[in-house]
Structures are given as structure tokens and as C-alpha cells.
């Protein structure tokens, strides 16, 4: 039962992060601007905060996805080699943006995505070691 719950959570997160990532440029700017304005108590320079949030989103979204995906594979007893799909999507997510109006491919964003994948996997491995799974 835990496997199916994790699978649904992972699929839902993947769908959310892919939808966010593939919004057109204007919607992406509007979303990050609203978030930065909402967090303006933390940083008065909302333009700098918006830029930070746009860059950090890559790593955060991919870290959560990677953690959930690793947990799903582990819980389901699936081959660990399937995890290779996570770094592959870190690249493909950027490569498919060329078809989104106002979006473009960025190697820096691929690197941020990959950093998130590694962070999520490291956190999952640390949790497994802690719980002796």
C-alpha cells in the first residue's frame, strides 16, 4: 500500500513541477513575481528575490522529485537503475522548453536540476542509513 501512495505522490509532484517548468515566459514571470512580493518581508529588493527564487526552484523541485522517486523505487523493490531517469529528465526538462513561448534551454538550469537530483538522492540515502533500511 505504501508503494502506491508514494507512486501517486511522485507522479503528482512530477506533474506539478513539469507544469510549472513549462508555463510560458509571462506566466513564469508572474508566478515568481507574486511569490517574491509575498516574501518581501524577507528581502526588500523583490527583483533580486525573484531571481533567487527562479534559480532555487530548479534545485528544490528536482530534490523533492528525486527523493520521492528514490523512495518509490525502493519501496516497490524496483531496480535502482531506473533512477537514471531522474538525471535524464533534469536535461530533458530544459530541452523541451524550446517549444514553450518565452522560454529557452539553459545549461545553468540543467546543472541546477542535476544538483537537485543529487541532493534528493543524498537525502534519501541518509534517511535509509539512519533508519537502517
From TrEMBL:
<feature type="transmembrane region" description="Helical">
    <location>
        <begin position="59"/>
        <end position="92"/>
    </location>
</feature>
<keyword id="KW-1133">Transmembrane helix</keyword>
<feature type="transmembrane region" description="Helical">
    <location>
        <begin position="113"/>
        <end position="132"/>
    </location>
</feature>
<keyword id="KW-0812">Transmembrane</keyword>
<protein>
    <submittedName>
        <fullName>VanZ family protein</fullName>
    </submittedName>
</protein>
<keyword id="KW-0472">Membrane</keyword>
